[in-house]
Amino acid sequence: MIKKIVTPLTEEKVKDLKAGDSVLISGVIYTARDAAHKRLVDLLDKGEKLPIDVKDQIIFYVGPTPAKPGKALGSAGPTTSYRMDPYAPKLMDIGLKGMIGKGSRNEDVVNSIKQNNCVYFAAIGGAGASISKSVVNSEIIAYEDLGAEAIRKLEVVDFPAVVVIDCQGNNLYKIGPNEYLKSLK
């Protein structure tokens, strides 16, 4: 069964998601990669205001290609998430509820996901052209000097993702292989 989610991603919505769930996300999500994350955390460390309010939001780890004429965004494949691991817990502490990327997360991030009732989604690597079809509007809202890594506000309709780590800390990257191995017996 595919679960449909409409942002903002509230705590109630997060609690309904389980590792392995396929989801279609509609509404607003933001993009940011490691350079933007560093700037955001530097602002937090200085006690300054962020250029976006991350409360109940989702950040997609992506550096999209330029949009073709008539399109909102170019190819938008997920970036490997571990590069955001040093920064993600501070953003979750101030209300970020979801992250979209690919690959595993470190224990600090998993613990922060559980502590803050958040969720980590995976998008399919190599499917950036297909993923970008769910983006209906894209606007750079911060750090334009970072080019593809600028923070964008995306409006999405039925953005496909899979819950990898749910708010309980259940991790599909660990559960999946174990279930497969059990099925071979």
From TrEMBL:
This is Fe-S-containing hydro-lyase. PANTHER family: L(+)-TARTRATE DEHYDRATASE SUBUNIT BETA, L(+)-TARTRATE DEHYDRATASE SUBUNIT BETA-RELATED. Belongs to the class-I fumarase family. It comes from the Bacteria. It comes from Clostridium ganghwense. Keywords: Lyase. NCBIfam families: PRK06842.1, ttdB_fumA_fumB. It holds the Pfam family Fumerase_C. Residues 7-174 form the Fe-S hydro-lyase tartrate dehydratase beta-type catalytic domain.
